[in-house]
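This entry is passed on directly below:
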Amino acid sequence: MTDIEVSVGLLEDLDNPGCREFSIGDGDWPFKGFVVRQGSNVYAYQNFCAHVGHPLNWAPDAFLTKDRSQIICASHGAVYEIDSGECVAGPCRGKALRHVDCEVRDGTIFVRGPDSA
C-alpha cells in the first residue's frame, strides 16, 4: 500500500457546509473517503462507518444531517462531529471515523491516503 495525494476540487465549489466523495487508487478496492467543508476548514474521513464498517452515505456526497451541522450514517443513524469525526449519538457512541490527511493549497483541496482499502 502506498500513500497517494489526489485533488478533490476547489474549495469555492464546495457548499459551506458541504461534502464531496473521493477515491484513491484503482481496481476493485480503491480507498474511498469524503471531505467536509465547515467555514474555511476542511476535514477528510474514510467513508467507513465506525458501527458496522459500510459506507456512510446512500446518495452521492450526502453525508450531513438535515441541518448540515453533523455527519450522519444513512444506515443506522450514527451521528459524528464534523471537526473530530467522533460519534456523539447512535450505536457507536465514543468511536470515531478514520481521519484522512487533508489540506487546501491555492484554493484546491488535496487529500493523501492509501491507494487501496
Observations:
- The CA atoms of residues 5 and 112 lie 4 Å apart.
- The longest strand covers residues 3-10.
- The chain has one domain: 3-114.
- Strands lie at 3-10, 18-24, 31-38, 41-46, 71-72, 79-80, 87-89, 101-105, 108-114.
